[in-house]
Amino acid sequence: MTIRIVIADDHTMLREGLSQALDSLPDIEVVATAADGRELLETLASVTPDVILVDIEMPRLSGIGALRKLEGAPPSIVVTMHSEDDQRRKAAAAGASGFLSKSAPLPDLAAAIRAVAAGEELLDEAVLDEVLDRHRQPILDEGAAALTAREREVLRLLASGVSSTEDLADRLFISQKTVKNHLASIYDKLAITDRAQAVVEAIRLGINR
Q1: Whole-angstrom distance, CA of residue 60 vs CA of residue 139
Q2: Angstrom distance (rounded) from CA 125 to CA 148
Q3: What is the pLDDT of residues 36-46, one digit of tens each?
Q4: The pTM is what?
């Protein structure tokens, strides 16, 4: 399962950095970004994400102002430097499902995205950590989740540039026939057909690190 998200923030470097960081996770895909609330509304007219990340203070139209104009919108998380209770209440009144500080580490933000995508709310600081803890693990599709430790090791070597059957066998201290068996199982579980696609999947799943 991949959670499609849209990010709205007027700070270009933050928006691009956050986009790259979240897009690198195996179960999250950034499908669009917006520099202000009005651009967010325009984007959502043609893109349907699973979750929206939105800053409060943006030019032309604030994040909360944009949320107020949305009807039937997907779950949204207000990510802001302003952690005052009145801003939290405004975010909730505008329909936000979550309220998170921009100082939150990436694992917390990723967990928050998974949480609201699953229908949970992150507006009560008293239970925030408890909810986040339930969603810290990436949501992998059935095939990726079924990969064995050895198959993940094969994928990691492929992603690092070790591509021949002989070299893989030497690195893993197994026979070439066993390598081929592992590759066949990987291809079947990930619904792919060759080693190039396996490398792409290894990167998507974060197995290359």
Answers
A1: 36
A2: 38
A3: 999 999 999 99
A4: 0.78
